[in-house]
Specification:
The chain is an all-alpha fold. The protein contains five helices and no strands. The protein has one domain. 74% of the residues lie in helices and 0% in strands. It is elongated, with a radius of gyration of 17 Å.
Length: 144
Amino acid sequence: MQDRLADIGNLARKVVGFAILSAAGLAIDMGVFWVLVTLGLRAGFANLISASLAVTFVYFSSAKSIFSYHGGFLLRLFLLYAAYQVVAVLAASLAVDQLVVALGLAPLLAKVAILPVTFSANFLFMTFLLRAPRPVAGTADVAR
């Protein structure tokens, strides 16, 4: 029972920590997005640029501090993260663009509307990507 409570507490700390860093990333995202939209860039393209900057910030600021990743910089992990974010940012950008074009939402409101989905997806992917490696029985602990 105590182990389960400790696991829940650990998960809660990760979610809160990730939320704080994501809020900083969101500030970067919204600021850059607002500037680009104000300069006349279409909402979907502005989101592509601003979200890319923000998710990169969140990855590098949370990998060790939130997800306790203790490995060195591994190109494979970063490439997996980048590939995921290409798909995620494109999907979010299309969603923002459609909310603006099809529903007439203000661009910033459209970005806010997708936050619960993007936050949850990013947390789950980071948890998966940076989980502690589990040694295979009968083998030495292999670096990821």
